[in-house]
Amino acid sequence: VLEELKMPFSHASIGHFFQDQPRLGNQFLEDSLLQGYLKRHLPPVVLEEAGQDLERFGQRLVDEIDSLGRECELNPPHLKHYDAWGRRVDQIITCPAWQKMKVVSAEEGLVAEAYERKYSSWSRLIQIVKLYLYSPSSGQFNCPLAMTDGAAKVIESLGTQDALQDAFGHLTTRDPEKFWTSGQWMTERKGGSDVAHGTETVAHAQADGTYKLYGYKWFTSATDSDMTLTLGRVVDAQGHVLKGTKGLTLFYLEVRDAKGQLNGIEIQRLKDKLGTRQLPTAELLLDGVKALQISPEGRGVASISNMLTITRIHNTIAAAAGMRRVLNLAREYASKRFVFGSLIKDHPLHMQTMAHMEVQARGAFLLLMEVARLLGLKETNMATEQDQHLLRLLTPIAKLFTGKQAIAVISEGLECFGGQGYMEDTGLPAMLRDAQVLTIWEGTTNILSLDVLRSVVKSQGQVLSAFFSSAQEKLEASSNIPSLSQSTSRLLQALQNLKDFTKKAGMRGNGFMELSARDFAYSLAKIYIGCLFVDHAAWAGATESDAYCAKRWCEQDLCPVNTAEAFGCYSSDAASMDRQIVYEKSPL
Ligand code: UCC
Ligand code: FAD
For ligand 2, what atom is nearest to the CA of residue 217? Predict the structure, then answer.
């Protein structure tokens, strides 16, 4: 076919064609699974009221918040050590958009919603849905909100002291003038995973009942926060401290005093990070920081574990939301990009790629909602024993599994835009950079896999019994639905394999359990998500797509721990071979 030659690149012209960019729509209205889930689970009155608020918020994200998030990426924080006259000021300078995010968070009740409990047990789920919509547009302000929520949870569970009640009011208010955010300072140079042996910070008792903290915190995110929770070792009258976890106590402190001066803190430097650059993360010298002891002595780790539960759930929110966002943008783009004679949405191989991502994102979403539902029940004293065991088990599983999914899905998502996915000014590369942290902070994948084992051992297996009962219950309704029979039978088989594995594992030593921990956690995640898919697809209001997603999910190896065990992957021979191949020297 001959085209009329228009000399498209002559003189100042740079060609006629410009690709339409993907546009962000109202993320609440565009999410069919979210709509279905809420319709299925929320009482109609709650659905009506909360639904309207979520739709309004979805539009505010498009009109205002998303561009603030982008500004945070483009104007990262910096540290001013000295004022013009040489005085040490250690001021973290953040951009106006970051400061506005704090106002928005208070106005929208992004923490408050969960503690007001206006909708009883559903308040927590609604808050989490709101954060799920907010997260990819938040310019990483979701991080301080996670820790703020975690601190509020710890105070709610521990606090009777006046100072704590005051702080709780600040953390959970909707008034932007009064709203505080919190940090979570756990990591020191010797260890962020092994906090029990890594913490060198010491706490000296003062005559007025407070403590002074001395130490060095190696990672502190959102260091512009108003308060923090942190760990230290109380020094006894002889000047001794207890080593290990039994020596750790939890402290509360305010970062600045009433005059705005830092409370015995020197900000040494801001971290130079791969991603999350919007977020100030600092190294801090604690040099006589005034703090309140808020846990019994030696109960620091156990007491901060409530915060870990909440922040790990927020991590799951960020992971599930990141996947959803990249998919929604990629599908928008696929309906605008025309190659090889058709839109890319009309190339079946591209659709298959996106469908695979879609199934991953939906699975993560269903697991997130399950955890949110269980947390809501626990917080309103409506959780059964089974619910509580499940919440304990599924929290680390959801964090570790969805973090890995997010990196893979967002990476694939960038590829959906071809070369443009790699271009900074599209905003897409930042999504991948920010996803990488999801498997590191708040406990790495291995540490959380070991936490899954901790929950099994501590409950003497009750968390696993709860898992099996709940999984089985979720499959009950689907057994006689033809479109779900294949998925159901694969899940029943996987459950049986997992049961067989746990019986065998019980007879092997700790080394075996440790080596299998990650595959074990993945198996629990894959099976439980499969059950959630089937359960959702068996609902009377479900669509054909729901059954199809269940089927696609269940095609994979649902119980990799059993498969690997059959290959001898957890034997002591395998452990020494693992070491050998990692450290193999070149024969030359
Ligand atoms: O990374 C951080 C902030 C990043 C910025 C915020 C992002 C938020 C999300 C954003 C979304 C965008 S803050 C640092 C986070 N650090 C970690 O996650 C630490 C990772 N390491 C671990 O989790 C370890 O497993 C430790 C530190 C918990 C291990 O400590 P121990 O002391 O060696 O372990 P033990 O002896 O097993 O546990 C001590 C007590 C026990 O209670 P008792 O004494 O009653 O038996 C445990 O049962 O603590 C209890 N415990 C728990 N309880 C330990 N872990 C848990 C848990 N997960 N849940 C309940
Ligand atoms: P290490 O513990 O040294 O781990 C190194 C590797 O060893 C990991 O792959 C780990 O999985 C593996 N490993 C360790 N132990 C075991 C084991 N027993 N079995 C198998 N594998 C194991 N911390 C805070 O307290 N507050 C913050 O605000 C904060 N913000 C952060 C912000 C960012 C951007 C980042 C990157 C980190 C932040 N952290 C913060 C620190 C973070 O929580 C830790 O980096 C993380 O918990 C890992 O600890 P580590 O760096 O000491 O790694």
Answer: 25
Q: How far is the CA of 311 from the centre of ligand 2 (A)?
A: 14
pLDDT tier, 158 (very low <50, low <70, confident <90, very high otherwise) = confident
| C-alpha closest to that of 155 among 126, 184, 196 | 184
- pLDDT given for residue 294 in this prediction: 96
Structure-block tokens of residue 586: 């070149």
The pLDDT tens digits for 252-284 are 999 999 999 999 999 999 999 999 999 999 999
What spacing in Å lies between the alpha carbon of 400 and ligand 2's midpoint? 13
Q: Which amino acid residue places its CA nearest to atom 56 of ligand 1? A: 305
Ranges of H-type helices in 253-384: 300-334, 348-379
Q: How far apart are the first and last CA of the chain?
A: 60
Q: Is the pTM of this model over 0.90?
A: yes
Residue 455 pLDDT exceeds 70: yes
For residue 12, pLDDT over 80 is answered with: no
Asked if 255 contacts 262 with a C-beta cutoff of 8 angstroms, the reply is yes
Question: Residue with the nearest Cα to atom 35 of ligand 2?
Answer: 441
Q: Is 218 in the pocket of ligand 2 (CB under 6 A)?
A: no
Q: What is the mean pLDDT of the chain?
A: 96
HEC profile for 141-186?
CHHHHHHHHHHHHHHHHHCCCHHHHHHHHHHCCCCCCCCCCEEEEC
Q: Pick the atom of ligand 1 nearest to 395's CA.
A: 58
Ligand 2 neighbourhood includes 94 CB (under 6 angstroms): no
- Quote the CA–CA distance of 503 and 562 in Å, as a whole number: 11
